[in-house]
Specification:
Layout lengths: L14 H13 L6 H14 L3 E5 L2 H11 L7 E4 L6 H7 L6 E2 L11 H7 L4 E7 L8 H10 L6 E5 L7 E2 L2 E2 L6 E5 L12 E5 L4 H10 L8 H4 L20 H32 L5 E2 L8 E2 L5 E5 L4 H13 L15 H5 L8 H8 L1 E4 L7 H18 L2
Parallel strand pairs: 2-3, 2-4, 4-5, 5-8
Antiparallel strand pairs: 1-9, 6-7, 6-11, 8-9, 10-12, 12-13
């Protein structure tokens, strides 16, 4: 009987993170405060960005940008159907029906020609997604806007997966108007729950708008209000409540200090998968790096050539019975009940469905050992070849 259990993506938490949280708990200040401010400074430095605003999640970062910039009503948002639902929900929260662009064949990214053709006079935002830590080819999108004479369109990258990725020699975080990262528990760098917006330019005023808009529109954070005689505040907008806490930021600061090592281990494991699986003609391996980018190695999305959705699901179940947890990234948004009820149909996005149907995401995390990585790859091969017959 096999007792080996390999989870999908547990967080890499050490005594350093635990001690940092205990320090904050003992400090008497646990919500937004000095640790959040310090994390924002460190993120600016890491991403080579002029500004960083730490928040409670990536999802609320997307919501906040659209709200603060008053993107709503008749505006059109172009995005991908192949992402976590939060990307598209951000449009719905502003009363906008997202326009999905089918993927390029055998790619995790939107088809550039279809994106070009989809731009209309109403298009106000293009919202791209860095899948698995692989950056979108940002310059391709910028070139489309130049060709269409539509450089007024706001470019937002849902960079939930790509903290630490690089594009044309620079860290991901400033290539578009805004990048929004996730520090959720399963991400490379975690604050338990959390996210951040990064952007460039002489826009300190916008930083302040983001900050008070993340506090229900309140002009003072809790730490400022608690100072003697500083109780009075104003409300400037109907904001959200999505500030990060010092508890989460304390975890993030330690993780950021350790991040080069974390990233190095994820890269090593990704290449172990590559070296073993590349021997199989049915294995469609994910892109890890090329001459313009390097992934953050957040996911290892393997595709199995010729497999149906049902065959893929049988492989996932068989691996689960062996104690190996896998996943699928992603169920296309038009396949969800809520979006089907809005009138979306997966048949309108054939390349998106094809990308999903034979995809299986293998365990990848910085406390996974090389031996366990090899074990996963070998058993994936066995399971796939069993169900190919």
């Amino acid at each position: 009987m096999n007792n080996r259990v390999i989870p999908f993506s547990p967080p890499d938490i050490t005594d350093l993170e635990i001690n940092a949280v205990v320090e904050v708990l003992k400090s008497g200040w646990i919500t937004s405060g000095p640790k959040v401010h310090l994390l924002e400074e460190k993120l600016q430095e890491y991403c080579q960005a002029d500004h960083a605003v730490a928040l409670a999640s990536n999802s609320q970062g997307l919501d906040l940008i659209l709200k603060v910039l008053n993107i709503s009503g008749e505006a059109e948002i172009l995005t991908t159907p192949y992402t976590y639902v939060a990307t598209a929900n951000a449009a719905l929260h502003r009363g906008i029906r997202p326009t999905f662009i089918d993927l390029k064949k055998d790619s995790f990214f939107m088809d550039e020609e279809k994106l070009y053709d989809a731009i209309t006079d109403k298009t106000k935002v293009i919202l791209t997604v860095d899948i698995g830590g692989v950056p979108m080819d940002y310059d391709v999108v910028k070139n489309i806007l130049r060709e269409k004479n539509r450089e007024d369109i706001l470019l937002i990258s849902d960079s939930a997966h790509s903290i630490g990725a690089a594009y044309k020699g620079a860290p991901v975080g400033t290539q578009f108007d805004f990048h929004v990262f996730s520090f959720h528990a399963v991400k490379n760098l975690t604050t338990a729950e959390g996210g951040a917006i990064t952007f460039n330019g002489d826009r300190e005023n916008l930083v302040q708008v983001f900050k008070y808009s993340s506090l229900n529109g309140q002009t003072k954070d809790a730490l400022s209000k608690m100072k003697a005689g500083a109780w009075r505040y104003d409300i400037l907008t109907d904001g959200l409540k999505c500030n990060m806490t010092d508890i989460g930021a304390a975890i993030g600061l330690v993780q950021l200090d350790r991040y080069d090592k974390i990233l190095g281990q994820r890269k090593k494991l990704s290449h172990i998968y590559h070296s073993i699986l590349s021997e199989k003609e049915w294995a469609l391996l994910p892109l890890l790096e090329n001459d313009i980018m390097e992934s953050s190695y957040h996911l290892y999305p393997l595709r199995i050539q010729g497999f149906t959705e049902e065959q893929r699901d049988r492989v996932i179940q068989e691996l689960a019975e062996m104690g190996i947890a896998t996943n699928v990234h992603y169920i296309p948004i038009p396949m969800f009940t809520y979006y089907k009820e809005l009138g979306y149909d997966i048949q309108d996005y054939p390349n998106t469905y094809a990308q999903y149907a034979n995809e299986i995401t293998l365990p990848l995390y910085s406390i996974l050992t090389s031996a366990d990585c090899e074990y996963v790859a070998e058993n994936v091969i066995k399971a796939v070849e069993k169900h190919r017959k």
